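Researcher: We're reviewing a set of sequences before deciding which ones to prioritize for further study. For each one, I'd like a predicted 3D structure that I can look through quickly. This is NADP-dependent succinic semialdehyde dehydrogenase. If possible, include the structure in token form so it fits the rest of the review sheet.
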Amino acid sequence: MQEAGSPPPPMRCPSMFTSINPATGQPGASIPELTAAELDDRLARAASAYAAWRTTSYAERTALLERIAEQFEANAHELAEIATREMGKTLTSALAEVQKCAGAFRHYAQEGPAMLAPASFETASGPATARWLPMGPVLAVMPWNFPYWQVVRFAAPTILAGNVGLLKHASLTQGCGAAIERMIVAAGAPSGVFQNLAIPSGKVDALIADPRIVAVTLTGSEGAGIKVAEAAGRNLKKVVLELGGSDPFIVMPSADLDAAVQQAVTARVQNTGQSCICAKRMIVHADIYDAFLDRFSAAMRAVKAGDPMDPASDMGPLSSEEQRRTTLDQLDAMQRAGGKLLFGGEALPGKGAYMSAGILVDVPIDHPAAQEELFAPVAMVFKAADIDAAIALANDVPFGLGSSVWTNDPVERERFERDIEAGMTAVNAMLASSPEAPFGGIKRSGHGRELGPYGLHEFMNLKTVFG
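Model: Here's the predicted structure for NADP-dependent succinic semialdehyde dehydrogenase, in token form for your review sheet.
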């Protein structure tokens, strides 16, 4: 008890998430961390919202999704600028990301109800019907690299399903998380249908254990996925994991070499190389290896890193100085193992976490450094004697997210589709996600699927009714 006349105890300042612009190193907006009481209130609000939202009609849910799409479109430039300031992606790519989000909301508004149609069966004892029903509040733990798209591919199907969403966004992009909530609320979502939780990663375990949370989805690192899977397993809760990748980009002699080179550059430096499905390992048939490397090197040397607000910049900085240090350490380890850095892969002078695009060759595939995900605009290029060697190289990593293969030989195409160990393969194209098709990986790239009808069904109760 405070004694009479004694000074009041000092006020505890709330912890803050303060963004750092990776292009300038300057601090930006700050968002206060939720207190324990505020977090509990958010959970109670989610539980209350679910009790009502689960009974709404598909027409009401799809109408909300359409209005959310309109909010994203009407505020596209503001949203894009927040992402560019918080994690450094070019404004051009941030605008494209926002538009893609609007398209995803519209896709589920227009096509989603058909994905939830009940199915009828005849059993030995009579008719049965399988219905898709909501489950409850779903927690999403999301990364900074695509701060809107990663969230929306969870949020859109969650809202359509009749569930409610709770977002724990990355510390770097709390402003983006708050902006998403603003867009959904402005579209007329009932209180608690979607909420951003400004909390640190250390509080995720307790959230997963909370009985008001019924399932969790995570996109992030392998380490984060292990922690979330362990917590979900202890609490017997459904989990979807989309983790890292070290995607192969295989080029065969029958391919259109110019098209392959052009797409290889885009696939490696998009988002400054910070994408799980960026092509990270170029595996080229020996017959065209020299020709590919010459053209690929020339194109990669021409990639311009600069102010992400400038439309002339091909890529912005890495997301943080910490990310740049991590990358430089990885490149150093690869070179000490025998890899040769042909050019680039260097920290650029001046302010900001900028790095030059580069190419590594002769990296021993079995070295631990080569088994890691390289989240930066540096490509590893490998030579393969034949298709068997190419597939073996593609599969000789612990990841299995995506892949891209370049061939005009139908027999080779069938081999790649059948034998590459990955959740996705693009043929004569750069791999990209789409709201219409399932997205996800195998091996240490995670399990479960996002997007398409399968992503919608992941967090729903497939209830069978007999009679």
